[in-house]
Amino acid sequence: MIVAECFGVDLPTFQGEGPSCGHPALFIRLSRCNLTCTKCDTPYSWDWSRFDPHEESTKWAVADLVAWAASSPVELVVITGGEPLIQ
Ligand code: SF4
User: What CATH number is given to the structural domain containing 24?
Assistant: First the structure.
């Protein structure tokens, strides 16, 4: 997987939207997006006219992402983007 960032293991964070809003969560932000929303708050995941994809993303094996998530007692893992379905 091409990943923009993972967070929530070292520094606790919470889901901010949807039915699980307020619950502790881990976030896996996948890189790349084809939607180019004008008010995008994560352009570093896809806008290569402004960001360097080699600096803004890294390749992770799925097993390593699972191991990263499993290293935390937090049970909610949010896979976001970018546009996660590209991958
Ligand atoms: S990352 Fe999200 S907000 Fe940004 S362009 Fe893609 S779908 Fe839109």
Answer: 3.20.20.70
